[in-house]
UniProtKB/TrEMBL annotation:
Residues 51-156 form the Methyltransferase domain. SUPFAM superfamilies: S-adenosyl-L-methionine-dependent methyltransferases. CDD domains: AdoMet_MTases. Pfam families: Methyltransf_25 (PF13649). GO terms for biological process: methylation. GO terms for molecular function: trans-aconitate 2-methyltransferase activity. This is Methyltransferase domain-containing protein. It comes from the Eukaryota. InterPro entries: Methyltransf_25 (IPR041698), SAM-dependent_MTases_sf (IPR029063), Trans_acon_MeTrfase_C (IPR023149). Keywords: Methyltransferase, Transferase.
Length: 237
């Protein structure tokens, strides 16, 4: 694993790979959705050799990326959490054994807001699954525009997915139960309870509202940013 110095992380929360992977099956579902959609919609001649997984976490999304696109010979995973990267480095041997020649796999510290590929090595696929909602609102669209304009290879694909479920009934119910009074768990969850409508919380970038489809359309389509690059947005779950 290479350890280039990252910019200050965009989110202050520590990440626990063990805890994260306890729910790997559930967490992987949107990745399957996005990658299946990408594989089905890609031109039959699309055969990516370089792929990048930005916000790769413990490598679960990187692993699926190589399974869906076994032609990938150079695989890069970037994350701002050293703990997540340490966990990701454990899957390197599995990822390196490509179907034919050996694959080159690298996990590095980096920031999705500023990462670029080395000269002449633009990725054919950039995957950013469940990471962009960790950027502040002001950074989110500019980051994607930069990836599309400057970072992905010509004719490549930028595939993104971000959850937007904080105000879904399931999540509301969890918060309501967590802060109940007169129950055995009373006081166990003191940090629950950012209330609805609270739009800016210093330590929770993921609660900044996700931009509407129209905003994305204006930024990407009307500005003719896309050019020869495909953009896959896996509806906001
Ligand atoms: C919810 S996990 C997603 C992991 C994996 N991509 C997946 O789909 O399951 C979010 C990851 O994004 C990383 N992250 C958050 N902000 C980042 C940034 N600005 N640059 C790079 N990684 C970032 C976190 O460290 C964390 O590992």
């Amino acid at each position: 694993m290479s350890t280039t110095t990252p910019n200050p992380p965009s989110n202050p929360l520590p990440w626990n790979p063990h805890q994260y992977l306890l729910f790997q099956t559930e967490r992987n579902r949107p990745i399957h959705d996005l990658l299946s959609y990408l594989r089905l919609s890609a031109h039959p001649s699309f055969s990516p050799t370089r792929v990048a997984d930005l916000g790769c976490g413990p490598g679960n999304s990187t692993k699926l990326l190589t399974q869906y696109f076994p032609s990938a010979k150079e695989v890069v995973g970037i994350d701002s959490s050293g703990d997540m990267l340490s966990s990701a480095s454990k899957v390197i041997p599995e990822l390196e054994s490509g179907p034919e020649d050996k694959r080159e796999v690298r996990f590095s510290l980096g920031d999705v807001r500023t990462w670029t590929a080395p000269e002449g090595k633009k990725p054919d696929i950039i995957l950013a699954n469940a990471v962009l909602h960790w950027l502040r609102h002001k950074d989110r669209i500019p980051t994607v525009v930069r990836l599309v304009r400057n970072v992905v290879a010509d004719g490549g694909v930028v595939a993104i997915q971000m959850p937007d479920n904080y105000y879904e009934w399931t999540h509301r119910a969890m918060r309501e139960v967590a802060v109940m009074k007169g129950v055995p768990w009373e006081g166990c969850f003191p940090r629950v309870g950012y209330s609805e409508g609270e739009s800016y919380t210093e330590e929770r970038p993921d609660l900044d509202p996700i931009e509407s489809m129209e905003e994305w359309y204006q930024a990407l389509n009307k500005g003719h940013v896309l050019g020869n690059v495909q953009m896959l947005v896996n509806g906001f779950a």
